[in-house]
Specification:
single chain; 7-stranded parallel beta sheet; 2 domains; about 425 residues; Rossmann fold; 6-stranded parallel beta sheet; globular
Length: about 425
């Protein structure tokens, strides 16, 4: 069969898709990967055929554009809160999930995120691609809903592959319940309106699977995923970190406990927002009897001054190669970084900021017993972080719980084992192109 992967032009999102794409290709299926032109080099470096669609996403240049979209969307609301509150997809307090909050959330998320990532030109290119190439299955990034529209336009089966917690599915469930409880005249649904309008341009209409897929592929182990009533299929996370050459020092076992400090690929500029700065993090680790491997680029190193004697700074090293030698990892809570640590059974100290799902993931890591996070909302001090790392290194329960999660992940279906499942689901869901 033919399988099209659709991903946001962000390497961490794409890296999650690579092992499954290669498993399908190794099984004899045709595979292509569609994304904005920004990602073409990363796709081809992974040995997969790239199809650029739409304009460049240019994430590094779009902060002001995102802010403008947020402000414009907020103008539609009677009493808008600040921009961050308008995009709080992690909100789970029942008293806060009011109709006004949910309407505002989806107004801003639709205008500033979903429409931005699946711009008109991008969706048009995706639809043209699927109608020309005729894939049997489309696997799409949960933030790229243009993938579901393109799949429906050609009759392909389609599934979301999650990058992180299923915040979209969870908040969509809350919003639909809120809408159903209101009089019909008060049921404003900006996400459905946008998808209906976009689908109609290609001869179709709206249905909920355009938001959440016909089924969902989730690489997170059960203790670290959000409960959902959506059809879902587990798949083992197999780390892919891009092209890399292993340094000589990584070939020898460390002489003392090794700690990885990483900001992840997604958030190179900040770590934890107001939580901690790079100098604070390094100061905290400087006094430990441990070797610290810090994946810091030149910009981050510029603000640190002289590095502590126990810190080895490297611009990049694949976590899949580094983490087996580590006793702990300090990171910002990104999905790829956390999953790499889980796969190798490494206890985690998570210093999250307010972006997307970092706080709830940090909470899930703590709840699983496989790591710790700062206790309060204030700035993180070197003393607190040093205490967290020391506790994780000294108390065996963290290593035991991390090993338990590692074994649970090893028991999930591998991408290769998932191929027959996807073949069966594709046969069941594939159909002729939609009727107007």
């Amino acid at each position: 069969m033919r399988v099209l992967f659709v991903t946001l032009a962000a390497t961490p999102h794409f890296f999650v898709q690579v092992p499954l794409a290669w498993a399908l290709r190794a099984a004899g299926h045709e595979v292509r990967v569609a994304s904005q032109p920004d990602l073409v080099e990363a796709i081809t470096a992974a040995g997969l055929p790239a199809v650029p669609v739409g304009p460049r996403l240019a994430q590094d240049e779009s902060v002001e554009e995102l802010r403008r979209r947020q402000e414009k969307a907020a103008e539609r609301l009677a009493d808008p809160p600040d921009a961050q509150a308008l995009m709080r997809m992690t909100e789970d307090r029942p008293e806060r999930l009011t109709p006004a909050f949910l309407d505002g959330l989806f107004t801003v998320m639709t205008s500033s995120i979903f429409q931005n990532f699946s711009a008109e030109e991008t969706v048009d290119d995706l639809v043209a691609l699927t109608r020309r190439w005729r894939p049997d299955l489309v696997v799409w990034d949960t933030l790229m809903m243009g993938g579901s529209i393109a799949a429906r336009a050609c009759g392909a089966a389609h599934a979301r592959l999650l990058y992180g917690l299923d915040l979209v599915g969870t908040m969509r469930r809350h919003h639909r319940a809120s809408l159903a409880a209101r009089p019909r005249a008060l049921r404003e649904d900006p996400l459905a309106e946008w998808l209906q309008w976009t689908a109609a341009r290609h001869g179709g209409g709206f249905s909920e699977d355009l938001v959440t897929g016909q089924w969902t592929l989730d690489p997170a182990p059960a203790p670290l995923r959000t409960p959902t009533d959506l059809p879902w299929v587990p798949v083992r996370h197999v780390p892919y970190n891009g092209r890399a050459t292993l340094p000589d020092w990584l070939r020898e076992p460390p002489s003392r406990p090794r700690i990885c400090l990483t900001l992840g690929l997604s958030f190179r500029e900040v770590m934890g927002g107001e939580q901690a700065s790079v100098p604070v993090l390094l100061e905290a680790l400087a006094e430990l009897d441990a070797e610290v491997v810090a994946t810091l680029d030149a910009g981050q190193l510029a603000e640190t001054g002289r590095l502590p004697a126990n810190v080895r700074a490297v611009d990049f090293v694949p976590l899949d190669a580094l983490l087996p030698s580590c006793s702990a990892i300090v990171h910002q809570g990104g999905f790829g970084t956390s999953q790499n640590a889980l796969v190798h059974g490494v206890p985690q100290i998570v210093v999250p900021n307010d972006l997307w799902d970092l706080h709830p993931r940090a909470d899930l890591v703590v709840r699983s017993g496989a790591g710790l996070r700062p206790s309060g909302p204030g700035p993180l001090t070197p003393e607190e972080l040093r205490g967290l790392v020391t506790r994780v290194l000294r108390e065996p329960s963290y290593a035991r719980n991390a090993a338990r999660l590692r074994d649970e992940i090893a028991g999930m279906p591998s991408p290769a084992e998932l191929v027959p499942v996807l073949e069966g689901l594709t046969r069941r869901h594939r159909r002729s192109a939609w009727d107007a």
